[in-house]
Amino acid sequence: MARDRIRIGCGAGFADDRIPPGVEIVERGDLDYLAMECLAERTIARETLDRAKDPAKGYTPVLLERMEAIMPPALQRGIKIVTNMGAANPMGAARAVRKHAADWDCPDYTCAVVTGDEVTDVMRAHPELPLMEDGAPLESLLPRMASANAYLGADVVARGFATGADVVITGRVADPALFLAPMLHAFGWSYDDYAKLANGTLAGHLLECSGQLTGGCFADPGKKEVEDLAGLGYPLADVWSDGRVEVAKTPGSGGRLDVATCTEQLLYEMHDPSAYITPDCVLDASEVTFRQVAKDRVALQGARAKPRTPTYKVVVGYFDGYMGSGEMGFAGINALARAKLGIEVVKERLRRRGLTYEEMRIDLIGMNSLHANDADACPEPYEVRLRIAARTPDKKAAEAVGAEVRSLHMQGPSGAGGGVNFGARQILAVKSVLIPREWVKPEIVMESAS
Amino acid sequence: MSVRVYDLGHARAGDKGNTSNISVTAYSDEAWKVLHRQLTSEIVLAHFMHLTAGPVRRYEVPQLRALNFVIENALGGGVTRSLAIDPHGKSLSALMLTITLPGHNE
After folding, report:
1. Considering only alpha carbons, which residue of chain B is nearest residue A426?
2. Which residues in B lie closer than 8 A to residue A287 (C-beta atoms)?
3. Would you call B12 and A267 a contact, using CB atoms and an 8 Å cutoff?
4. Does the beta carbon of B64 lie under 8 angstroms from any beta carbon of chain A?
5. What is the pTM of this model?
6. Is there a single domain that holds both residue A166 and residue A271?
7. Domain count, chain A
8. What are the pLDDT digits (tens) for B24-74?
């Protein structure tokens, strides 16, 4: 049955996004589809490591908690779900969900899994590929490579829906593609219908960060007010088969959705607005306009697109040493001078232990920790919190940073309180390469109850 | 009379690798004229000089009264390896708003 309009909701905009507004949009949004975007640039590298330790793992850690809350109300209403929570192990994610779904009072369902984004073997076979960041050959990263995944497009995800699946689980997919896929599936849009691809991609781009479209990341008391920010609702898109799109949010929820919030989110993580490259098209948003058609409802206009590029972007995760950090607080008279003495003491103790670091960063929280501005130009606050962080290939040297900061409690300046040692964490950095599309073989695999 | 960007528009910061992009959207046509004329990529680079040597590129979206600044090398080596307490640079939108421009009567 051909539909004239579908409604797609956003149920999550990052891995640890809040779950209640996702449940709320399922229960009150009158949706046809729910998309949940939960995969940041580097998280898949960490999940690849999880999978190496346990072949059943490697999906987004919050998968089961989120699906337990979302799946029963969604499936009961006939809402189809798409999510990239499969991360480094989409089939493992599908199996884990299946295993628990019986306990969640879930109706019977079918699940399609998108595989093939994982391309570590392709990377090993092509050490000559230039890195997008600096042009250097990929080769230097290969010994330290933790993961490599291509950003797949909406065409593959739509094939998942074409199986009739109620749930489509993917690994790495371009974020807007999670939203474009239901449109391709429901309306049969083709890849040379650029006006429709443009609107669909734009809608996906606006929705993929959940509450950032609906008043999150926006309020500034006395300047930019957001009604009931605590009750912030997630966004949805009404999409017509001719390509028209209006965005709105969960009825009765908090927040605001208007030209101002849409404009901020349009340019979020966009560089040249006339050439926003996705696997599905090159979006030209330079002439986009927003029209408020009702309270918390905006029509999108003016998006255009050029054909998709012949390449997929691959993000390569690699080990890049360790980062150690710690914090200590100082307050009252002469707090700043005591904090500065603490800095010198920690640096000198690390030096006398013979420990060296690639880079060390010192922040005075309350003065310069976020903007790295000149602390000497700041008024001295009543209290200041010292933070020291450093990067090194040596795990023990990284561990020493937080330990020395923490020791200021007893062996530092007077009145040092509230110390924390954050320990050492392994750094998983990322760089990117482009590869011909033919090198990637995406597949749809059905996961079933058997 | 000088004017703060804070009084002319609102801002949001995003990240891609080691690049920060910060949009500034004018509250009014009048404010847009000032921002469009005076908030140049040179002014922005000068204000972010302690974070990066640039370059800074500016894109204009006049029908939305918005400017988009793409500030390279501003994120301490990139979100994944930065030592910064705010590796994404989400708070840098507020730094953009602290810039003071000559204002209407330059």
Report:
1. B81
2. 63
3. yes
4. yes
5. 0.95
6. yes
7. 2
8. 999 999 999 999 999 999 999 999 999 999 999 999 999 999 999 999 999
